[in-house]
Structure formats: structure tokens, C-alpha cells
Amino acid sequence: MLGVLAQRLARRICKECKEQYVGSKEEYEELRLGYGAEHWDKLGIKQDNTFRLSRGKGCETCNRSGFKGRVALHELLLGTDHMKRMIQQKSRTEDMLKTAIEEGMTTLVQDGIQKVLQGHTTNKEVKAVAIK
Ligand SMILES: [Zn+2]
User: Fold this and answer.
1) Of 36, 56, 97, 129, which sees the most CB atoms within 10 A?
2) What's the gap in Å between 66 CA and the centre of ligand 1?
3) Rounded to the nearest whole angstrom, what is the distance from the C-alpha of residue 96 to the centroid of ligand 1?
4) What is the pLDDT of residues 94-103, one digit of tens each?
């Protein structure tokens, strides 16, 4: 086993009507908690007027929805020796997830939040497709 890849498709913000805005304190906290506070703090993102998010205003091109096309969110679980052993031993899912993150895995939600910060999609979209 080399690895296991998970993918979800989120709606992409329409390029024609995309606008940036300063995210609220609530939006900041929601992203920070969703990402995992200890990992988020390493990104060095401040909660001030440099904290920008994007949204689609809605135009002819996107039928007033603010979205056009899709963006893929990924999560790649690497088949490391440690992980293979955990699978053989039927370890608990939470323990495997913890190990995977320690070994550098970016979760679907984290990948989604990175794409929110890059202005490709919104946190609402990420929550709709990446959280069960
Ligand atoms: Zn549009």
C-alpha cells in the first residue's frame, strides 16, 4: 500500500464577480478551530484588517450564485511502516488519524481551509463537503 487518497469537490468562487473582504472575528475563530488551533498558529495569520477572505457577489456568468466550477480538496494518507503496522493491529481510527497528522498529513478540512485562505472557495463550502 502506497497510500489512500480522499477527494471532495467544493464549489469554486466565480472569478468574474469575486471580491475580497476583511473576515470577521467569528470567521477567523471558525477557521482557526476548524484547522486545529495549534497548527493554525504556525501559519502566522493575524486577526486584523489583513485577514482577507473572498466571496462571489453573483453575476450573469455564475447565474447569480457566486460560484462557477469546482475545486478539489485532497487528503493523502501515506502508507508508512508505522501506519501499515497500525492497520494490521486494527488500531483505533482516532489513533491512526493522530499518527497521520504527526507524520505530516494535511486533512481534508485543512486542505479546504487553505483553499479558503487562497480565495478559491468559502468555509461554508468546505464544511458542506469535508465534514461528515
Ligand atoms: Zn459570478
Assistant:
1) 56
2) 5
3) 41
4) 999 999 998 9
